Every structure is written in structure tokens, then in C-alpha cells.
Amino acid sequence: MGPFDARAEPGWVETGVARAVRTWTVPAKYRQMRNPVACDAVALAAAREHWADHCAVCHGNNGSGQTMFGRGMYPKPPDMRTDQTRTQSDGELYSTIKYGVRLTGMPAFGEPGDHDHSSWALVCLIRHLPEMTPDEELAMRAMNPKTEADREEERQEEEFLNGGTPPATATPVHRH
Ligand code: HEC
Predict the structure, then answer these.
(1) DSSP 169
(2) Beta carbons within 10 angstroms of residue 53's beta carbon
(3) Can you give the residue ranges of every domain in the chain?
(4) Nearest CA residue ID for atom 39, ligand 1
(5) Hey, what CATH topology would domain 13-145 get?
(6) Distance, CA 77 to ligand 1 centroid (Å)?
(7) Quick one: which of 27, 125, 17, 5 has its CA closest to 75?
(8) Where on the phi/psi map is residue 132: left (φ > 0), alpha (ψ -120 to 50), or beta?
(9) Distance CA 142, CA 35 (A)
(10) Per-residue model confidence as pLDDT tens digits over 128-164
(11) Which residues line ligand 1 (CB under 6 A)?
(12) Which of 130, 129, 116, 108 lies closest to 48 in space, CA to CA?
């Protein structure tokens, strides 16, 4: 199956080139950096909270990129559970988080300086994405930025689960 296989996603050439250019433009200093943060439960918990609040809107809690925003972007946020992210060095991921990706929707985050603990903790989380448990995702859902509509929907779900009246949207259809 060659590179011009018809089943290849449209735009993969551009995406691939943009990605390669980015790799070349990551300063060598960053490419070689190792994550100084110990990726323990504390670091992961902090990173989950940070991710749920700042990153999930585009990347999804699980890193799939399957979000309302992500789907509408070009280039799209990649599925970060796959090798194309996993094979990047700690420092590459860190520099992407700190400086963003020019000409894409990926904004720059992080604090000035090279020892930005929270950005390194996010690198821990990115490495952990493929093993994320449903419980972790659920905990992150609760930390995602919410709209009023989300809150109302949750309130209704909760009421329903607690034996209250079914939500208005789930009114049973009258059968003849
Ligand atoms: C507004 C949408 C948006 C938000 C918010 C966002 N990103 Fe991104 N991110 C993107 C897009 C789009 C790309 C793909 C850029 C590209 O194709 O080079 C990306 C790419 C990345 C990459 C590179 C992945 C790879 O495989 O090359 C990393 C790492 C990343 N984002 C981390 C984060 C983190 C951590 C946060 C939160 C602190 C975050 N992003 C928030 C849109 C976003």
C-alpha cells in the first residue's frame, strides 16, 4: 500500500510535512530534554485537572482529538494515543505545550522558563493516555469547563438516576 493509496486520509501529505517541519524546528536543546518530573500519582492527578480544564476542549479527555472543536480544525488535533505522538521525545512534547504550534490551532501554554513543572506533568499525562482508565476519564469529565446547558443536563440525569421524574428530553413517546 503506497503513500498515494486512495484510502489515505486527504491532507496526510500536508500534515506529514507540517509535522516533519515542526520536528526540525524544535530546538535541539528541547529535543534532548528528559522529563524532570516524576510521573507519579500526584503529578498525574494535577495534570488530569489541568488537561481537563485547558486541553480537553480540543484534545478530548482521552487524547483522541474527537471533540466538537477538534473535528472542525485543520490541521486537527492528532490522536495522542498513537505512535506519532508516543515516539516523540519528552522535550518535543514539552516544547509543543510551551510554545504551541505555529499556523495551527495549538496555542502556547505554560510559564516562562525551562522548568515549568505543570507542562512537564502534562507530558507525564500524554505518556499515560493509552492506559487511561474509565474512572480517570469520569473524574476528568467533572473538571471539564461546563456550559449552563451541560449543568442542566447533568442535574436532570442525576435526578433521574435518583428515582426522580425522567428528564423532559426523554419523555416516552405516546403509543397508539
Ligand atoms: C484550541 C484547541 C487546542 C487546545 C485548547 C490545545 N491544543 Fe494541543 N493541539 C491542537 C492542534 C490543532 C494540534 C495539532 C497541531 C499540528 O497539527 O501540528 C495540537 C497538538 C498538540 C500536541 C502535539 C501532538 C503531536 O502528536 O504532535 C501536543 C503535545 C499538544 N497539542 C498538547 C496540548 C496540551 C497539553 C494542551 C493543554 C494545556 C493543548 N494541547 C491544548 C489544538 C489544541
Answers:
(1) G
(2) 13
(3) 13-145, 146-176
(4) 55
(5) Cytochrome Bc1 Complex; Chain D, domain 2 (1.10.760)
(6) 6
(7) 17
(8) beta
(9) 28
(10) 999 999 999 999 999 999 877 777 887 888 888 888 7
(11) 18, 22, 54-55, 57-59, 69, 73, 75, 77-78, 80, 84-85, 93, 96-97, 101, 104-107, 109, 122, 126
(12) 129
Taking only the tens place, the pLDDT of each residue in 49-106 is 999 999 999 999 999 999 988 888 888 999 999 999 999 999 999 999 988 887 788 8
Measured by CA distance, the residue closest to atom 27 of ligand 1 is 85
pLDDT tens-digit series, residues 43-61: 999 999 999 999 999 999 9
Residues 6 or more apart whose CB falls under 8 angstroms from that of 165 comprise 159
pTM of this prediction?
0.78
pLDDT computed for residue 15 by the predictor: 62
pLDDT of 176: 58
Q: What is the distance between the alpha carbons of residues 47 and 123, in angstroms, rounded to a whole number?
A: 9
